[in-house]
Amino acid sequence: MQKRRRRITLLLILSLLTAVQNSIAFAGTIPELDIGTFQMYSSGSVPAPEPEVAQPPDSGNEISELKTVVATGTKWKLAAPFNVSGVSTSNKKCIRVSKKKNKSKSRKKAKWYDAEIKARKPGVSEIVLEGTGGEKIVYLIYAESPKIIKNSLKFNDIRTVSMNDYITGVTYLRPTSVISKKTKVATVSGDFSISAIGNGSSRITLSYGKKKIRTTLSAKLPAFTRAKVSLKKKPVRLKLKNLPKNASITYKSSDVKAVRMNREGFAAPVSNGTAKVTATVGNVTAECTVTVKGLK
Asked: Which of 18, 137, 221, 243 could join 247 in a cystine, given CB atoms 3.0 to 4.6 angstroms apart?
């Protein structure tokens, strides 16, 4: 009985020693606690990560996001849940500030004031709004001046481009809309890429909140001089217009049993029928309908 108790005691001592060794080894991997950092976190003085810069509203004239980018030349009202007694800016050259009377029926009698800003030049400014009851809100407003590098975009052997490649003067500001006046000439996709779908010109308008900038798209895409061609016995050369210099052209027939094409653009009749002939220049494809009649 005594031997059994000794064995149990030894096992307990060994297990305790192992636990102590493991705890010491584990403690060696823990970095020393920075008391200063702990005190800052406990006091709540560590600022939260800055939020992303918000875009200007698509509609209306009021900004509610505390960190917003706007276009130069635009005016905005800053949202405040209190009657504004004072408003100041850290950069007068960039942002001009003022107080405006609220003319709504519910607040006109109370002589309620709102804050208004006007973006004058590119830059950043801290806007401080103070209320009659001691309230305070701080806005951080970025002002940017978007410009189009080219007044005219010419399409020849390129069908789609991104407008971001033609805009300068912006870091955070993104267009709220891009509109093509003539959708039969050019269309706009969700990522603000412009695609030329027909020959002609179209006015392109980019909106940045209230600010609008414009350019003109001119499209002269390669196309067959004739949309429909009839063949009898002899091959006929299908001519193209609006070709760029040193253009590489690839011809293809949808039905080689009716019409065959060669590298020079000659359409040769094979048997009666109709084929759609395409000519690819870069990433632009032109189409022509070729009909073969009278073969025996």
From this structure: 243
Last residue of a domain, one of 109, 144, 179: 144
Which residue in this structure is represented by tokens 């003022």? 98
Q: What are the residues facing 97 on neighbouring strands? A: 117
Q: Which amino acid is residue 35, in one-letter code?
A: I
In 56-122, at which residue ranges do the beta strands (DSSP E only) sit? 62-63, 67-71, 75-78, 84-89, 95-101, 113-119
Tally of CA atoms within 13 A in the half-sphere of 244 that contains its CB: 15
72 and 14 in a common domain = no
The CATH number linked to 286 is 2.60.40.1080
- State the total domains in the chain: 4
**What is the number of alpha carbons within 13 Å of residue 132 lying toward its C-beta?**
10
Note the pLDDT of residue 137. 93
Q: Residue 288 is part of which domain span?
A: 225-292
- In a domain, residue 48? The reply is no
Dump pLDDT digits (tens) for 167-205.
999 999 988 889 999 999 999 988 888 988 888 999 999
Cβ-Cβ contacts under 8 Å for 114 (sequence gap 6 or more): 77, 78, 80, 84, 99, 100, 101, 102
Going by pLDDT thresholds of 50, 70 and 90, the confidence category of residue 233 is confident
User: Which of 144, 178, 210 is the C-terminal boundary of a domain?
Assistant: 144
All residues at 6 or more sequence positions from 33 whose CB lies less than 8 Å from its CB, including other chains: none
Q: Mention every residue, 6+ apart, whose C-beta is less than 8 A from residue 261.
A: 238, 251, 252, 253, 267, 268, 277
The whole-number pLDDT of residue 42 equals 28
> The pTM is what?
0.65
Q: Residue 266 has what pLDDT?
A: 96
